[in-house]
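Sanity check. The docking grid for flavin mononucleotide depends on where the pocket ends up, so I'm generating a full predicted complex first rather than guessing from homology. Inputs follow.
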Amino acid sequence: MSTTQFEHLFSPIQVGPMRVPNRICETTNTINSSMIPGEIDDHFRAHHGAKARGGTGWIGSETWLLNMPFPPETPDEVGLAVGFAAHYSVYQSPAFIAGMKKFVEEVHAAGSVVIVQLTHLSAVWAPSSVVVVGAQDYTPHVLGEEEIEFCLNTYADAAAVAKEVGADGIEIHCAHETLCYSFLSPVTNKRTDRWGGGPQERSTFVLEALKRVRARVGDSVALGIRMAGMEFRTGGAEHLEMREIAYHISESGLIDFFDIDVGHCWGAPSYVPSSYYANAAYKEVGKAARTDIDPKVKVLFSGRINDVGTAETLLKEGYCDLVGMVRAGIADPNFANKAREGRLMEIRRCIACTRCIDEAAEPRTFPYAPTCSINPLIGHELQWKEKFQPTKTPKRVVVVGGGLAGCEAARIAALRGHRVTLLEQSARLGGQLLIASKAPGRNDFEDQIYFEENEMKRAGVEVRLNAKADIAAVKALSPEVVVVATGSLPRVPSDVPGIDRPNVVQGWDVMQGKVSVGKRVAVISQEDYYETPCVAEFLAAQGKQVEVFHKSVHLGSEIARYSIGMVLRRMEECNVKIHPNLMLKAVHPDAIELVSSWGTRTYRETGFDSIVLVCGSIPQAGLYDQLKADKSVAQLYIAGSAWLPRFMAEATQHGASIGLAI
Ligand SMILES: Cc1cc2nc3c(=O)[nH]c(=O)nc-3n(C[C@H](O)[C@H](O)[C@H](O)COP(=O)(O)O)c2cc1C
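Predicted complex below; grid placement will be based on this.
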């Protein structure tokens, strides 16, 4: 495909005083890439700078959180309550300013522009005493006049710093769970004074903030707002009212751009939509803004635009002037350059698993590092710069198993110059990813398999499919290095009488079409991530009546707050019934017996034709143990689920770091 196919994407655009070199925008994403709280450190610059060097024209990096104590000399109750005390006033600290200046210089050197987003979160103080996030019982403190005045001024103060560090644009965050959003929305703004009322009155706070920012920074910096085109909450400002607000704000002449997305916070869809949502599903909100407002004000639309083809079409068909592509750049910071150079097959496309936002919101890594399920570099950019070097001593490497861990080990080792053979027992690479991609709304997961298949060719890995590798087969290849990435197999709960009955089957087998099930299905769930929802939905999509008996407090309890709403809503929509806090005790000919996870009470449930197990998996390390005992291989590694079944990101990183170590 030639670059001319992306002529819209790669054409520059004037946004107020700011010339953006192309239409690709990293809208702000607080992935917490700095390892020094309150500073812009080398990790931050490596992470966001890579996107600029990779061809993204607009770099929004991470938000500047303005919440601070009020009055300023008091303890930071506001910051502590929103969980971001460390951010308090950071934008005023000399170290932060120095780091930011250096970052701006780097981005400018790459030819891109820097946009600073200014945010006041509203969970603790808000226009009215209405919970901002519906599913949480946290009623905010109602802002008084003095506090409103204080908040408005912080926008202007921070904007002055943004200008000082050399930012090309400033965006006031008026979407998601922010103070400006709370003023705009009819759900959260119930005021009867001058800050509340109809759409125009509710815009007063935002307009006042914009006026103060403009007065402070003048016309040499582009100014805009981020706003939700649709809220998706009962009583919220749905499309028409949002259009009215957008029109009213743009008519003020204060702004140069609208950055528009959808979703109010953690609902369904979240503003970081998962693979359950189509690419650019809500693009009409971009088109509406573009239709209504003065064409001088440019419209940026975001929301699951993960490939350059979709982005080009959106621009060509007039849905927006600029495209937000955040996770596209996390999955592959170089995607823009690759697209411009016509290297489309080399792009690693975001699969919208939402691990990046989940990790940022509720970290599971320790110490915390930004995380991507499919790009092992994320969060480790500096180490990779040092370690991803051509080898001085090319070795014969055999990788056994073509799941994510095996593929990444093979790919990285081969790119570094080793001679790699990968043995995969099935007919295709992908391992568990092949199974996961069969679930409704998960078909994009297959993109990562395509990526690995293409990369194996590009890196020169010899892939042998349908190759069952026992110890003799491995030794016959005389390897100097072996990586055992033989994965895991589904677990069968022990000590459950009747578990071997013919109507008890494994979820993985169901997904692969290896077994069939009857009309009424009981899913026994003993895992807290996506596997159960995927199996349940797969069955429901086949017209089965599905009931899940889940071991803990709620299904998907390890899925973080930005994503869980989308998962549970899907369960509701496909009529999956969920019974929490239950473990399987026995399978009888006519019933299943369950026991409370926390107590001793037992329950009998009848009428199920099939019982489907989703109970995690057991590492398959037999080959590794044999090779270890044999001692004939100089360097032996075990990678991915064969060592410990975890999640995609862990498999990717485990495999890739072995590829670096060889
Ligand atoms: C890790 C992460 C952090 C985010 N933090 C912010 C933020 O601080 N402010 C904001 O306006 N949007 C934030 N977002 C939302 C993104 O700007 C973007 O709108 C969203 O990811 C959808 O775009 P995409 O499909 O291109 O990723 C964040 C997204 C991610 C993935």
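Relevant for the grid: The pocket of flavin mononucleotide is lined by residues 27-31, 63, 117, 173, 176, 226, 261, 271-272, 302-305, 324-328, 356-357, 360 (CB under 6 Å).
Also worth noting: The first strand starts at residue 13 and ends at 15.
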